[in-house]
Amino acid sequence: MSDSNVIRNLTLDSRDEAVILFGPRDAYLRTVRDALGVKVVARGDMLQIEGPPAAVDQAERAFQQLRQMLRRKGKLVAEDVRSVTDVVRGGAEKSDSVTTMESGRNLRARTDGQGRYVQALKTHDVVICVGPAGSGKTYLAVGWAVGLLRAGTVKKIVLVRPAVEAGERLGFLPGDLVAKISPYLRPLFDALAEIMDAETVTKYMENDIIEILPLAYMRGRTLNSSVIILDEGQNATPTQMKMFLTRMGLNSKIVVTGDPTQTDLPKTVKSGLGDALQRLKDVEGLAIVHLDQGDIVRNPLVTRIVKAYEEETRGKRSAT
């Protein structure tokens, strides 16, 4: 071993996990090894990684992310391995700007998970992204959509939200239709306001280049050359989700974001997001990206709050 190299051991959960993680005839191990410049030795359920410290760190992150993907999907494919290695080594999908903010700074992926998300946005026509509050699900999608609009790749952005109250009854709201639905759509306005100047947003909305509307208003439409983003997808019913996903016309992209742990639907109503995650997991051309606590880029306290709630939920499940 070179004086500058380090060795790190990674213990897997089982031999079965190792077989899938290593790939057919260890093909996935070789992909990680060649992409990150490390030596990888597999012995049963033990994985030994050797190389320069930075490369070993990247390889360990790559294998841990692949293990998470395996637990969620029950399988891995070569594209998963290439995607993860591209991101952890600071490849193009992580370092490239998503778009330029109004402040002049570039909007970029800031975590490995966000890097996978951006890569999925660039390579798939339909992307479903789930994750906790603050992980950048909607923000990155809106930024990516603005980038496509600025480049002339699409002609329209449609931002959609279910008009579902978050655990409280607001009662009668004064004003016209726009005033009544505005509180539900405010987070989408906020995301746009950070990426584009207010005058441009207003002009685009007046000229129907940007639309922000409740999910129910999507019925019967077909949208060509558009980016269509559904935020808070966990508050759509399965019927609404199917309706939304089938609005995509020619040269269009669809993004669905949501957090399955924050559903505001009545307990007797099934979430369309959870239904879609199961129903569409093997659909070709559609990507499903899972973000977690490590992808939260708000105040660090948000990460600790999310973790505390998740631990309580896990405790209740184990008790039952």
Note the main attributes of this structure.
alpha/beta, 320 residues, globular, 6-stranded parallel β-sheet
Gross morphology: globular
Oligomer designation: single chain
Question: Which structural class should the secondary elements be placed in?
Answer: alpha/beta
The topology string of helices and strands comes to EHHEEHHHEEHEHEHHEEHEHEH
Enumerate the strands of the largest sheet in spatial order, edge to edge or round the barrel. Answer: 8-7-9-10-6-11
- List low-confidence stretches: 166-173
Mean pLDDT: 83
Strand content: 15-25%
The rounded Rg comes to: 21 Å
What is the count of DSSP helices, taking H or I runs of 4+ residues?
12
Instruction: Describe the largest sheet.
Output: 6 strands, parallel
Give the N-to-C terminal Cα separation. 50 Å
Determine the fraction of residues in helical runs and give it as a percent range.
40-55%
Number of beta-strand segments: 11
Give an overview of the whole structure:
The protein is an alpha/beta fold and 320 residues long. The protein is built from 12 helices and 11 strands. It has helices spanning 15-22, 27-36, 53-73, 78-88, 92-95, 112-123, 137-151, 177-195, 198-206, 238-245, 272-279, 300-319, and strands at 6-11, 39-43, 46-51, 99-100, 106-107, 126-130, 156-161, 210-214, 226-230, 253-258, 286-290. It has a 6-stranded parallel sheet. A 3-stranded antiparallel sheet has the order 1-3-2, covered by helices on one side. Strands 4-5 form a two-stranded antiparallel ribbon. The longest helix has 21 residues, at 53-73. The protein is globular, with a radius of gyration of 21 Å. It starts with 5 loop residues before the first strand and ends with a helix. The model is unreliable at 166-173 (pLDDT under 50).
